[in-house]
Design brief:
Structural class: mainly alpha
Number of strands: 0
Largest sheet: none
Strand content: under 5%
Shape: flat
Amino acid sequence: LLILMGLVQLEKNQIRAPYKFSLATGGASYALYLSHTIFLAISMKLGLNSALTDLPPWKVQSLFSIYALLMVAISVLHYIKLEKPLHRRFKAWLYVS
């Protein structure tokens, strides 16, 4: 949602995101949708959430932002390295059969 809001705000200012960025994050959105709950559950199991309780709010928000960017980056890598090649192979297999 934050990426979409940022892209909409950029477009309002006549700035367009690079095509490859839009394509990669758009393709990775489903991977992010499926994996974000796993990431958050893992962070709870590791005790990262309780470790943040003594930090000032600005640090917690900064760490959450970094964590969110990390989740997006991992999802984009997953899409590029795993999903996209699998889609290509599956399409090739469909059209050959």
